[in-house]
């Protein structure tokens, strides 16, 4: 009896395993794009479907349009290739990419964020190492130093798509109508904020829920005080102490004071990226502290004409007696693209990837459509919007750049801890000294 | 029939699918989670190093955020039990007393929040509580109560309270439904008898309705505590634990450690503690509220 039971159990297990594994392989094969499939009618080239994962769900304007244009260009030249785009908004995108990584999903090309986020993908072996030699020279025309956030242990795992730098977009009409001076110093900025509050207009719209942008502003203040751009990065890597840097304390105290004085919109702590942008584009906030990748606002026809006409951009103001100048730029290369190691069409994927990253594709299209400021050299067309011209000038006249944001300069674990500390600092739950100590604690954890 | 049920093989075949499902979806993940909790892996698919119990040591002895999020979850549970449930019982009795068409109408109205998607509820409350454009502050301003205006969800002193109110509001319908069913099950004769003995108004319900609801209350309190511990979506969609951790809840903290901070091993340690806490709370509650079987 016992023997019989044991045998039946075994038989059942075997049967079940077979059934389950059959399900598995069926499932894999039925997904489009996983397999390079049959040859086409001419019999020369293989039909290939590439899976492209993007953080730009709006395919009709700005960067999403530029990205889609490049994809369309490639498909036109290579009719045997089909590119399936999956695009999600920023935060869901990040989450899903982690899920793809966990299950080693065979997508082909993905958008990636530099530094801490890419660090995890590299550790998991999900993205493909690139040969920097392939991307030298005129075909690509990358600006110097743009691979910083994509380099791990001297190997690069992705290519940047933009030159990102923090600026203040502002609504000219709101400044003019209320007789408020466009600020060039932090004191003027605070005075302007006060004047706007009295007029019941929100001063700076801030996506505080995401926290990273508060980090960028902290870094901006630190730069304006200290006049240099390397100490924060070194401290994040544990090479020096945040607490030993008097400018960290000073910048933290200044940021805390500014928030306390109401420089941000009141609901900043519950506002995500989109909500903060809406507040600004609807003319309810006078300024938006954001990156150069929003250049496309000026030519985005879904925004009201009156807003676009009044859109201006300025450099982050200086601090009186600070060592940093107005042309020192918090600049980095945040977004980029990587090839995926799990891809089943590696060769075709790389061909498309190289095409997309060549200077006459992404860089040119992104600039020409006014979507972003590329990380590659580009030609002026003469059709640029005022905002674009000003943004180009800001980068051209930059006397120093950052390379990577403080929060991205180490691991994802550091990023999370640093962002939490920034949140607490902003709302005044911790003192600037405690803030520095929390950053040091985060940096010491490896 | 008897022959079939005494055959071990037959029993096995009938039980196996359910058992296999249970093992694959409950037991195996917990065991896997237990394994990962002893490692310092940063994400699924990355290298795995055993670090023994150091994750748990860190969690229990040095991690303020964990204790804070546990405290918040327990506070929410208390909020459910002490604020939401008395209101639910009160409204259940009221509904029962109103009777007729109105009863049906109000029953439906009270249940509406439970059928609205969590995303919609979160967005709606974000708008209602918006400090500048929100209805609440506007009404306060209109009534001349500017001093009471707050940055409800963005200020660490009011964020937790505001969030608790949202959660208590949105879960109100479920509580009401259970208590209402309980109240409906109490025979009318008992009230008549009590009235003859001179019990009226609040006393009548305090002496008759509430004691007879005790089986429902026992189940509801346990469910409320577990719901509170598991709370995730509304927090994630409104404050994401902020400002500055003041609305950090266990499940949100766990999620962020696993997927934002890339502390996968550590997050698994949190999830193991999470299971232990849930079991402990359930056990204690069952102990405290020993189910007295009531016959009537």
From TrEMBL, chain A:
Keywords: Signal
Region (Disordered): 25-45
Keyword Glycoprotein among record annotations: no
Secretion signal span: 1-22
Domain of life: Bacteria
Protein name: ABC transporter substrate-binding protein
Native species: Paenibacillus oryzae
Automatic annotation (TrEMBL), chain B:
Subcellular location: Cell membrane
Membrane-topology descriptor: Multi-pass membrane protein
Pfam families: BPD_transp_1
Domain of life the protein comes from: Bacteria
Residues annotated as domain ABC transmembrane type-1: 70-285
Coiled coil: none
GO CC annotations on file: plasma membrane
Location (main, coarse): membrane
TM region(s), chain numbering: 12-36, 73-93, 105-126, 159-183, 204-229, 264-285
Keyword terms of this UniProt record: Cell membrane, Membrane, Transmembrane, Transmembrane helix, Transport
GO biological processes: transmembrane transport
Annotated family: Belongs to the binding-protein-dependent transport system permease family.
The name this protein goes by in its record: Sugar ABC transporter permease
Native source organism of the sequence: Paenibacillus oryzae
């Amino acid at each position: 009896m016992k023997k019989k039971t044991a045998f039946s159990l075994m038989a059942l297990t075997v049967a079940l395993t077979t059934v389950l594994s059959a399900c598995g392989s069926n499932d894999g094969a039925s997904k489009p794009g996983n397999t390079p499939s049959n040859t086409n009618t001419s019999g020369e080239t293989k039909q290939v479907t590439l899976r492209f994962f993007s953080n730009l769900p709006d395919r009709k304007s700005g960067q999403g349009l530029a990205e889609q244009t490049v994809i369309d260009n490639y498909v036109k030249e290579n009719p045997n290739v089909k590119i399936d785009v999956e695009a999600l908004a920023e935060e869901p995108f990040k989450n899903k990419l982690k899920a793809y990584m966990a299950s080693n999903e065979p997508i082909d090309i993905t958008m990636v964020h530099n530094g801490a986020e890419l660090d995890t993908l590299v550790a998991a072996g999900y993205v493909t190492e690139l040969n920097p030699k392939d991307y030298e020279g005129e075909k690509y025309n990358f600006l110097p130093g743009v691979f910083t956030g994509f380099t791990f242990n001297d190997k690069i795992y992705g290519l940047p798509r933009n030159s990102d730098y923090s600026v203040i977009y502002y609504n000219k009409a709101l400044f003019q109508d209320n007789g408020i001076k466009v600020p060039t110093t932090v004191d003027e900025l605070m005075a302007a904020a006060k004047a706007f509050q009295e007029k019941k207009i929100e001063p700076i719209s801030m996506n505080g829920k995401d926290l990273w942008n508060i980090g960028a502003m902290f870094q901006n203040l630190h730069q304006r005080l200290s006049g240099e751009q390397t100490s924060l990065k070194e401290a994040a890597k544990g090479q020096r102490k945040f607490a030993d840097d008097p400018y960290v304390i000073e910048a933290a105290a200044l940021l805390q004071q500014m928030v306390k004085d109401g420089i941000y919109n009141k609901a900043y702590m519950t506002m995500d990226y989109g909500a903060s942008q809406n507040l600004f584009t609807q003319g309810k906030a006078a300024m938006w502290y954001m990156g150069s990748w929003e250049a496309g606002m000026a030519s985005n026809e879904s925004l009201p004409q009156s807003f676009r006409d009044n859109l201006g951009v300025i450099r982050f103001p200086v601090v009186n007696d600070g060592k940093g100048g107005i042309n020192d730029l918090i600049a980095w290369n945040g977004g980029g693209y990587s090839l995926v190691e799990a891809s089943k069409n590696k060769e075709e994927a790389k061909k498309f990837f190289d095409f997309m990253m060549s200077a006459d594709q992404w860089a040119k299209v992104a600039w020409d459509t006014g979507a972003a400021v590329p990380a590659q050299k580009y030609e002026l067309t003469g059709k640029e919007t005022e905002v674009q011209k000003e943004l180009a000038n800001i980068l051209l006249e930059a006397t120093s750049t950052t390379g990577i944001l403080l929060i991205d300069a180490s691991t994802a674990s550091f990023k999370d801890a640093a962002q939490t500390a920034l949140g607490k600092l902003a709302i005044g739950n911790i003192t600037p000294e405690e803030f520095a100590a929390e950053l040091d604690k985060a940096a010491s954890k490896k | 029939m008897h022959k079939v049920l005494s055959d071990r093989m037959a029993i096995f075949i009938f039980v196996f699918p359910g058992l296999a499902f249970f093992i694959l979806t409950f037991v195996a993940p917990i065991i896997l989670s237990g394994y990962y909790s002893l490692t310092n892996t940063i994400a699924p698919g990355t290298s795995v190093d055993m670090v023994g119990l150091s994750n748990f040591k860190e969690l229990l002895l040095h991690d303020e955020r964990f204790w804070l999020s546990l405290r918040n979850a327990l506070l929410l549970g208390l909020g459910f039990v002490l604020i939401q449930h008395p209101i639910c019982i009160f409204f259940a009795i009221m509904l029962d007393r109103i009777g007729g068409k109105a009863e049906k109408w109000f029953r439906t109205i009270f249940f509406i929040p439970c059928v609205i998607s969590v995303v919609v509820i979160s967005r709606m409350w974000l708008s209602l509580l918006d400090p500048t454009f929100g209805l609440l502050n506007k009404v306060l301003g209109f009534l001349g109560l500017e001093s009471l205006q707050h940055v409800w969800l963005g200020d660490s002193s009011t964020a937790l309270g505001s969030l608790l109110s949202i959660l208590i509001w949105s879960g109100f319908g479920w509580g009401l439904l259970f208590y209402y069913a309980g109240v409906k099950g109490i025979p009318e004769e008992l009230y008549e008898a009590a009235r003859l003995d001179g019990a009226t108004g609040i006393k009548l319900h305090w002496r008759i309705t509430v004691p007879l609801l005790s089986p429902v209350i026992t189940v509801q309190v346990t469910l409320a505590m577990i719901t509170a511990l598991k709370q995730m979506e509304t927090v994630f969609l409104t404050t994401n634990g902020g400002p500055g951790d003041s609305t950090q809840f266990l499940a949100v903290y766990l999620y962020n450690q696993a997927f934002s901070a890339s502390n996968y091993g550590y997050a698994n340690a949190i999830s193991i503690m999470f299971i232990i806490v849930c079991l402990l709370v359930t056990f204690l509650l069952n102990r405290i509220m020993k189910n007295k079987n009531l016959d009537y």
